[in-house]
Specification:
This protein is α+β, with helices and mostly antiparallel strands. The protein contains six helices and nine strands. α2 packs across α6 and α3 packs across α6.
């Protein structure tokens, strides 16, 4: 449901972010909700279904950031308004957000270390400042993989089928207060 995916973490948003995270070998992933255009049906999923979900041909990008840079980026993501296409879906990170401000962020149960490097997967649209995100495509650690998001999702579905929606439940990965 497009309204839900733009207002709260959803299993589809988590699955898309997880597919990007795994394909890029990243520590975490961010997916802008505006790039999620439809739901996946129960039962057999076709490539046509995948293209309805991700019809734009966005390319998968990955950027190596210091923990300090990553925290700045996550602070920007926390400010994105629920209900907008900029609203972020995540994988690999647990966030606590209060009133649009990032209170805490952990990866693998550990606070993000400002001195350590992390790999963030996201789509090229978001990396170029789409939806009001900070630009990352000029960062020295940025790589556009050239992989199309729908193809990444298709491969992920083929590798992990049968899918269970409960396996992608957002749980308490993002807590908004």
């Amino acid at each position: 449901d497009r309204v839900r995916v733009r207002a709260q973490p959803t299993n589809l948003g988590v699955m898309l972010a997880r597919a990007m995270q795994e394909r890029a070998g990243a520590d975490l992933a961010l997916m802008n909700s505006g790039g999620i255009r439809d739901s996946l049906p129960a039962g057999r999923i076709t490539y046509r279904d995948v293209l309805k979900v991700q019809p734009f041909g966005n390319q998968l990008a990955v950027v190596r950031l210091t923990g300090a840079e990553l925290l700045d980026y996550l602070r920007a993501a926390a400010k994105m308004t629920p209900g907008s296409g900029a609203f972020a879906q995540f994988s690999g990170v647990r966030l606590v957000i209060e009133g649009g401000s990032l209170v805490s962020a952990t990866i693998g149960g550990q606070p993000i270390d400002p001195q350590r490097d992390y790999r963030l997967a996201l789509n090229h649209f978001t990396a170029t400042g789409g939806d009001g995100y900070p630009r990352l495509n000029q960062h020295p650690g940025y790589v556009n993989t050239g992989l199309v998001d729908a193809d990444v999702l298709r491969a992920y579905i083929a590798k992990n089928s049968p899918l269970k929606a409960a396996d992608y439940a957002p749980g308490d990965a993002v807590i908004r207060r």
